[in-house]
Amino acid sequence: MTKQFDGVDVETFKVPEAALKKAFDECPEALKKALIKAKENITSYHQLQKYPTIQDGNSQLLRAQIVTPIESVGIYIPGGTARYPSSVLMNAIPAQVAGVKNIIMVTPPQKEGIDPSVLAAAYLCGVKEVYQVGGAQAIAALAYGTKSIPAVDKVVGPGNIYVALAKQKLSSVIGIDHFAGPSEVLILAGETANPKWVAADLIAQAEHDSLAQSILVTLSDALIDQVNQELVHQMSNRTRKAIIEVSLKERGLAIKVASLEEAYAYVNAIAPEHLEIILDDPLYHLNYIHHAGAIFLGPYTPEAIGDYMGGPNHTLPTSGTAKFASGLSTYDFLKRTSVLQYSKEAFNDVASDVITLAHQEQLDGHAYSIQVRKES
């Protein structure tokens, strides 16, 4: 499948650990410094998401919840039209913070080899098992295991439509983070917003994918006109101009609203993956936003900060799923197990009630498992 779909004839899937170290050692100093700083920020934020074991009860009974990490996790790192060392950090670090023992990375092979920055990021994160395989076949390999690739308990990370559908199809076999659709940004901006900055942020989103969605919501006709002019001007200087043009033409949108209340309604209905609030006192407006994957406040917090350096995860719910889903976090790599212990006295105190409920549900075996203890 790798030869058929990626056009690469690999001799072995596993990338030698020495290649990871070599990529990191040979990484340009500026990039190495940026990766290290990003790792520190992402780690410190995700460490805040740990939650403790809980315990309740008295001398007669114990009720508790123990929190344990998932044992093995696969992280999928895209390798198509762009390279994503940041995705390595965003997927590996919360798993490590949670205490996952085995982290296995897969990424599509390229004819010229895997991008060194992706391998360098893996080394920096301590990921030792890296396999050059991508697409639906990579997800299947992680779900079921092969002679050369071990099975895992959960798979996370973004990918194309084939990867997303494979994860969805296999979600009864392994855990997944969520179904990831095309990336999107919504910018809620006022008339004083800098149109050059707004346009740049819309373009930054559009360059991900021709299916990416960039939306501006504002009360200002003048801002819409100015942003449109900037889009035309700035696009001509972008290396991914062809992708940006398709994205903005087919999925870009400016929404003129009559009031802030109407603006809030649009934001909450769309539930964007990324929301930028470029209004005076953005914290005030935050009170009226109920649905968004990640929120960026003020003119100096573009979404690109969150993609790389801010700390919160950039793997986020898309396509309106922020109404019920959350971004990737330490929590996604932890599982909760309930624990109960009743003394004889505590058992006797509830036995009759349990028998009553069991009979109501016509579960005679349940009732008898209680009754037999009362009689012994």
How would you describe this structure to a colleague?
With 376 residues, the chain is α/β, with parallel strands linked by helices. The chain folds into three domains: 2-177 and 330-335, Nitrogenase molybdenum iron protein domain (Rossmann fold, 3-Layer(aba) Sandwich); 184-318, 3-Layer(aba) Sandwich (Rossmann fold); 349-375, no CATH class. The protein has helices at 2-6, 17-25, 29-47, 85-98, 116-124, 135-144, 161-169, 195-206, 221-235, 241-251, 260-270, 282-286, 303-308, 344-360, 364-375; strands at residues 14-15, 54-57, 61-69, 72-76, 102-107, 129-132, 154-156, 175-176, 184-189, 213-218, 253-256, 274-278, 294-297, 334-342. Strands 1-6-5-4-7-8 form a six-stranded mixed sheet, with helices on both faces. A five-stranded parallel sheet has the order 11-10-9-12-13, with helices on both faces. Helix 14 runs antiparallel to helix 15. The model has no long low-confidence stretch (mean pLDDT 94).
Question: Brief description of this entry?
Answer:
The protein has 376 residues and is of the alpha/beta class. The protein has three domains: 2-177 and 330-335, Nitrogenase molybdenum iron protein domain (Rossmann fold), CATH 3.40.50; 184-318, Nitrogenase molybdenum iron protein domain (Rossmann fold, 3-Layer(aba) Sandwich); 349-375, no CATH class. It has helices at residues 2-6, 17-25, 29-47, 85-98, 116-124, 135-144, 161-169, 195-206, 221-235, 241-251, 260-270, 282-286, 303-308, 344-360, 364-375, and strands spanning 14-15, 54-57, 61-69, 72-76, 102-107, 129-132, 154-156, 175-176, 184-189, 213-218, 253-256, 274-278, 294-297, 334-342.
